[in-house]
Design a protein that fits this description.
Elements (H helix, E strand, L loop, with lengths): L4 H4 L5 E5 L15 H15 L4 E6 L12 H5 L4 E7 L2 E6 L3 E6 L5 E5 L10 E7 L4 E5 L6 E6 L23 H8 L6 H6 L9 H11 L12 H32 L38 E5 L2 E5 L6
Antiparallel strand pairs: 1-6, 2-7, 3-4, 4-5, 5-9, 6-8, 7-8, 10-11
Helix pairs in contact: 2-7, 4-7, 6-7
This protein binds a DNA duplex through loops.
DNA sequence: CGGCAAACCTGCGAGC
DNA sequence: TGCTCGCAGGTTTGCC
């Protein structure tokens, strides 16, 4: 992060940072899937929850989508009642009956700035100022992120949320639930996992990781799973995400204390972006078993990279 | 309607 | 050295 202008200022204005950058930019941080969004949301809680948005600045008329009608007016003066998350969406429930739906897209991040907030840099799109004096600044170079406003009472019916599948970290997420969601699906298992109506919050990286943990081929027909394999996959999804949330949470604490480098998401991908490497779970040589492990393969499914071990995953 | 591909957008790395 | 090109991702839109 040495090239990050917010850390090069040297004016100590950045005391906290909930930052996500693309894997292409940084090898040690992941893209915003469920665990990263959860971590960012948690990082925002102490700065936003219960506080009044005294001033909101929007520096361009749109992010991914055109700005909601009267965006600034509908936010200023509102209190942030509660922060939450659904799938990869950060939900900011406001006084007055509306909720702000935030998506980080590919490159969105929130910066937590001490007063006086430094002048905006390129891609600084939205500022939230609170009565306590801090500024929460949304920065998103690629502008795949977005902010939408909707009535809290109708939140579940919002087009972005209404078709979402179960939260994989909720207690109710299990083998039978997943099995029912996959029933009749003619797509490859990997594509089905990426479908947010099957499971909410799984992205391209954790889809590969979960399939590896479950020992299931990404190419397998989604509807070919039985109860046992569905159970294995549900457990794997939950475990992969839980580990990542835990990693993000601990490093977020570290970061806030250090107020400088953000070293979180020191992920340990087992297959993602590891084409050609040896698979951890395959013995170095197992001539007796017949099948040899050729290492981790990269394939493309639905225009997306998939990584897997053809020997371990079937 | 399900499934797949393209579009959106920018920064980066590889190749010339 | 400097340029072009391809690639990465989440979600929506469009096509078959």
């Amino acid at each position: 992060m040495a090239d990050d202008p917010y850390l090069e200022r040297g004016d100590n204005s950045v005391r906290g940072l909930a930052s996500l950058r693309s894997a292409a930019e940084r090898g040690d941080e992941t893209l915003p899937e469920l665990p990263e969004v959860e971590t960012v949301m948690r990082g925002l809680v102490p700065r936003l929850e219960g506080r009044v948005l005294t001033r909101v600045v929007q520096r361009r008329p749109d992010l991914r989508f055109p700005r909601p009608e009267n965006f600034v007016q509908r936010l200023e003066g509102r209190r942030v009642v509660r922060l939450g998350r659904r799938a990869k969406y950060i939900l900011m429930e406001l006084s007055g009956g509306e909720t702000l739906i935030c998506h980080l897209g590919m490159s969105g991040r929130f910066l937590l700035l001490e007063p006086p907030a430094p002048p905006p840099l390129p891609h600084d799109h939205v500022d939230f100022e609170t009565a306590e004096g801090g500024t929460i600044r949304f920065n998103d170079p690629r502008r795949f992120g977005f902010m939408l406003l909707t009535e809290t009472a109708k939140l579940a019916q919002h087009p972005m949320l209404r078709d979402l599948g179960p939260e994989p970290l909720d207690p109710g997420f299990d083998g039978p639930t997943l099995l029912a969601r996959l029933a009749g699906r003619r797509s490859p298992l990997k594509a089905a996992l990426l479908d947010q109506s099957v499971v909410a919050g799984v992205g391209n990286i954790y889809a590969s990781e979960a399939l590896y943990e479950a020992g299931l081929s990404p190419r397998r027909l989604a509807s070919s799973l039985g109860p046992a394999r569905a159970h294995r996959l549900a457990v794997a999804v939950r475990e992969v995400l839980t580990r990542a949330v835990a990693a993000g949470g601990s490093s977020l604490r570290d970061y806030v204390q250090v107020s400088g480098e953000l070293g979180y998401f020191q992920h340990a991908w087992r297959v993602y972006d590891r084409a050609g490497e040896a698979c951890d779970d395959c013995p170095g040589s197992a001539p007796a078993t017949g099948r040899r492990c050729a290492g981790i393969q990269r394939i493309v499914q639905s225009n997306r990279a998939t990584y897997y071990c053809p020997r371990k995953q079937r």
